[in-house]
Design brief:
The chain is of the alpha/beta class and 360 residues long. The protein has 10 helices and 15 strands.
Length: 360
Amino acid sequence: MASKTYNVGIVGYGLSAKVFHIPLIEVVPELSLYAVVQRRPTPDNDASKAHPGLKSYKVVEEMVSDSSINIVVVTTPPTTHFELAKLALENGKNVVVEKPFVPTSKDAEDLIALAKKKQKLLTVYQNRRWDSDFLTIQKLINENTLGRIVDFESHFDRYKPSIAGSKAWKTRPEPGGGAIYDLGTHMVDQIVILFGLPKKITAFLGSQRAENPGGYEDTCTILLHYDGMMATVKVAVVSPEAAQLRFWVRGDKGSYKKFHEDRQEAHLTQGMKPGDTGFGIEPHEWHGTLTTIDAGNLTPTSYPTVQLATYKEFYTQFMQAVNGRGEVPVKPQDAASVIRLVELAKQSSEQGRTLDVDSV
């Protein structure tokens, strides 16, 4: 018996749709790229030409009322996520929202309640749960290779001292914008997956660029306090390093240090897809360093990065959930908790003090 195919409608046709969603949807057999909302196509940027046979809408309301569509993917800027996801849920669609989920935890809770009321699935595209370096760390922690973790550092440091001419949402001082929502939500999500919610939070948000006329926060440092451990999230844009640190994890039995970013984003940008030869594979010289303790001696070795899954896994799991065969890949309540931690981080930075997290 043939598997059912689910039609997918995409809201927005920018970088997010082109790089992070459409290539993954196209490699999941049970999903069919069916429609897109693109309000202002141009001769060199037209979804219907790039994907012949695709239904093209200019108005979101028309697409979500199409009874042939089972799943709506929201890929527009964060300020629009709440209204668009709400509209899709109200029209009986299962919904995927690009991260950051929504600018506020109240918006997140309202969408969760609506999805429950409508008996539809809602999830958030936290694709970096399937980064190969993060999966490597999960493996090391699950196998107790590092022992009791006492310090965890997660970095997204780059050397981009200028953003002249950029019009991206992430470079504007608006709700859901700035480094903490753009990259910080990924990094906090990964830490919460590993260790759960922290006890306290301390954060410092600001700008490292000399010219930042909009005043948006291009950098952040977040300290997540756990019993016996500190987890640090750091995003920097003025970091002149040939190889940028990504993770540094230290325990009482060993440590793991990893430079360079996961390769999937770069490969997707180049037009590759999961399943293509070499997709997501990094060169051996990029492998992290595992330092272990043997008879009191510290022994560093190159530790291969695991290749267990790709971002395709997000849509594979979501398709299975729609088909009644499991949970969504990212529970919306987990994504709401991340947004609440972001709100607390912003409050901590504004007030210059450490805050209790309590029950988020």
